[in-house]
């Protein structure tokens, strides 16, 4: 397939994105960054971790995106007393047939909102993350496939640490994107205040169905990415592991304990293609990598004690990478 053919295909199919944004915008004021990244995850088939203080419409945004899609949606509030069975289901005894039958849990939905994921103990977190990775769960002796599409959007609160169980780095690595949600602007907050004080029920139209999402994902996979762009991705990821090999980045060697895993390269390529699709393009540009790169990398770099002592964050490291590495 030529670039022109891919481009035409993308232009034809991506028109629905404008309608999707219009419907979401009826409910959500501002937060364009969060909405766009949720759609990147949707079309790139990657799970998303949203971090931000309470009240920034994280839950409302995920709920609204789910309403625009004709698919099953479940919200699970994570608490310290949650059990894996509350998530994936369990076997229950049927007295009539004298057999154990599976009672499927809320994980069996197209869209899962894992609210405050860091409030649940490690066993529950690992049950969810296994489902995310394998797209299947085991109840008793039987393994059950999860529906397609299957997308987990998890939220966590960064300011309240009491009664929380921080996600280990290996588990956080399974999220394609980690989004840092910021406060709205003054104008946006004024609009939010007006809208929420009235508390009008705003109807949202269904725009997509699961079959359309799967079809769009196939188109996203076909989006053209030239060798220079692939090399750019590899340079960024390898600079987190071997910074001394890159010009002006040698000092990062003392600040990075562990660099990004190969998932970073895979997810950055997938997310960049989905970003190009949302921009109605059939090819990836360096701007796509720059736009989405920080969301893919920020949770995949483990800092040294020295970096923490100097109050250097993952965000600082990622910014340096994009500033110093040559753009093709």
Which descriptors apply to this entry?
single chain, 328 residues, alpha/beta, five-stranded parallel β-sheet, two-stranded antiparallel ribbon, 11 strands, 47% helix, 15% strand, globular
Describe this entry's structure for a reader:
- The strands form four sheets. The protein has a five-stranded parallel beta sheet.
- Helix 3 packs across helix 4, helix 11 crosses helix 12 (286-297) and helix 12 (286-297) runs antiparallel to helix 14.
- The chain is globular.
- With 328 residues, the chain is α/β, with parallel strands linked by helices.
- The chain has helices at 3-13, 15-25, 32-44, 58-67, 84-88, 122-134, 169-172, 186-198, 210-222, 227-241, 262-278, 286-297, 305-309, 314-324; strands at 48-51, 73-77, 89-94, 99-104, 111-115, 136-139, 142-145, 151-156, 177-180, 256-258, 302-303.
- The longest helix has 17 residues, at 262-278.
- Helices cover 47% and strands 15% of the residues.
* DSSP helix fraction: 40-55%
Count the beta strands.
Answer: 11
- Strand portion: 5-15%
* Mean pLDDT rating: 86
Structural class by SSE content: alpha/beta
The helix count comes to 14
Q: Spans with pLDDT under 50 lasting ≥5 residues? A: none
Strand arrangement, major sheet: 2-5-8-1-9
End-to-end CA span: 24 Å
What does the largest sheet look like? 5 strands, parallel
* Rg calculated over all Cα atoms: 21 Å
Gross geometry: globular
Q: Which sequence of SSEs, written as H and E, runs from N to C?
A: HHHEHEHEEEHEEEHEHHHEHHEHH
């Amino acid at each position: 397939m030529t670039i022109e053919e891919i481009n035409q295909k993308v232009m034809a199919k991506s028109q629905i994105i404008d309608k999707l944004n219009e419907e979401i915008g009826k409910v959500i004021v501002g937060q364009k960054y969060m909405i766009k990244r949720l759609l990147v995850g949707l079309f790139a088939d990657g799970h998303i971790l949203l971090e931000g203080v309470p009240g920034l419409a994280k839950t409302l945004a995920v709920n609204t995106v789910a309403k625009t899609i004709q698919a099953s949606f479940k919200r699970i509030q994570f608490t310290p007393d949650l059990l894996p069975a509350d998530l994936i289901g369990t076997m229950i005894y049927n007295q009539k047939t004298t057999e154990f039958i599976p009672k499927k849990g809320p994980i069996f939905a197209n869209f899962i909102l894992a609210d405050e994921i860091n409030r649940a103990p490690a066993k529950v977190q690992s049950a969810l993350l296994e489902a995310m990775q394998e797209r299947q769960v085991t109840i008793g002796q039987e393994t059950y496939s999860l529906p397609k599409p299957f997308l987990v959007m998890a939220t966590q609160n960064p300011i309240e640490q009491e009664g929380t169980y921080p996600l280990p780095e290996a588990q956080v690595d399974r999220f394609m994107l980690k989004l840092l949600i910021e406060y709205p602007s003054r104008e946006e907050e004024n609009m939010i205040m007006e809208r929420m004080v009235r508390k009008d029920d705003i109807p949202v139209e269904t725009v997509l169905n699961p079959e359309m999402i799967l079809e769009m994902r196939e188109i996203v996979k076909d989006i053209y990415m030239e060798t220079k762009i692939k090399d750019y991705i590899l340079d960024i990821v390898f600079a987190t592991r071997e910074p001394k090999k890159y010009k002006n980045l040698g000092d990062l060697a003392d600040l990075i304990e562990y660099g990004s895993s190969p998932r970073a390269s895979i997810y950055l390529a997938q997310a960049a293609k989905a970003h190009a699709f949302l921009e109605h393009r059939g090819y990836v540009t360096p701007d796509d990598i720059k736009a989405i790169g920080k969301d893919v990398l920020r949770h995949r770099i483990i800092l040294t004690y020295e970096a923490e002592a100097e109050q250097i964050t993952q965000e600082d490291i990622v910014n340096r990478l994009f500033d110093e590495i040559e753009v093709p």
